[in-house]
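ok so for the tutorial part 2 we go from a plain amino acid sequence to predicted structure tokens. step 1 is just haveing the sequence, like this:
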Amino acid sequence: MSSDSETVDLARRFLRVLEVLGRLTHYRMPDDLAGQLAVSHFKALHILLHRPGMAQKELADYMGLTPAAISTAVQNMESLGLIERRRPQEEGADSRVVRLFLSEKAESLIRESQTRRCEAAAGLLNALPPDEQRMIVEALERAMRAKESEGGFHF
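step 2 — the prediction. this is what the tokens look like for a chain of 155 residues:
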């Protein structure tokens, strides 16, 4: 096991790598939406891609935003044609709860962004041989699973 000082040093070095990776893979706003959509709104779209049908309150809680902030964001994204609000059609469902879904336009924007981010990360990994790439990714995945099982994170 590493000593505490070695772990702290490795943590600093790791944070530096994350900073560089973050700059390489940050959410890039499409030109036609620049100035109309905040980065946090783009992140909300990304969340809805993976968790379609969230209620507005669920999205606010998930992102750590106030109900007022998420309400404004959803209105903005809806006016840009990125989000659709739908009431449940199932019998017995609470019709007061409005669910949020991405429009086709938003899905396309997110997929393009994911492709660019993946290409940037792959560019960094490509500097290493495939066995080292696998080793790094698998070790980080193990660390994530360990922290998640401790209840420290939810991925």
